[in-house]
Design a protein that fits this description.
alpha+beta, 122 residues, 5-stranded antiparallel beta sheet, elongated
Length: 122
């Protein structure tokens, strides 16, 4: 397993917090990294959402009524079945942050972000 070097002062702060929370230093670092990665994914999908809104008119012409998966500002896959698209995107891109949405009349009908489902907003 690789070695991670932590600044001594940071380690002491995490150690104190872990003791206060009655958990381990390992658990504290693991949770912190998970939250950081979650935040990165949320930022990326927010960027994808902005790009989708900017491109909506062209996307609507080409993909109206279909689900699209956007990654790095590009449509990477399309399907009429959300679940089929989701599984295909996950098999192709793994855990990468991807926005999946139904292309409709407006640009505000987001269905999924990074695989977490939300209620459709019309």
């Amino acid at each position: 397993m690789p070695t991670i070097i932590i600044e001594p002062e940071l380690y002491r702060r995490v150690e104190a917090a872990a003791e206060q929370q009655q958990t381990s230093v390992d658990a504290m670092f693991t949770e912190a990294v998970k939250r950081y990665l979650w935040d990165l994914a949320r930022e990326k999908v927010a960027t994808e959402s902005r790009l989708y809104r900017q491109q909506h008119a062209a996307l609507k012409e080409r993909y109206f009524g279909q689900y699209i998966a956007m990654h790095e500002g590009q449509v990477v896959d399309v399907d009429t079945d959300y679940q089929v698209l989701y599984r295909r995107v996950r098999s192709q891109l793994g855990d990468a942050a991807v926005m999946i949405t139904l292309v409709g009349e407006t640009s505000e009908t987001t269905i999924a972000r990074l695989g977490f489902q939300y209620a459709t907003r019309l």
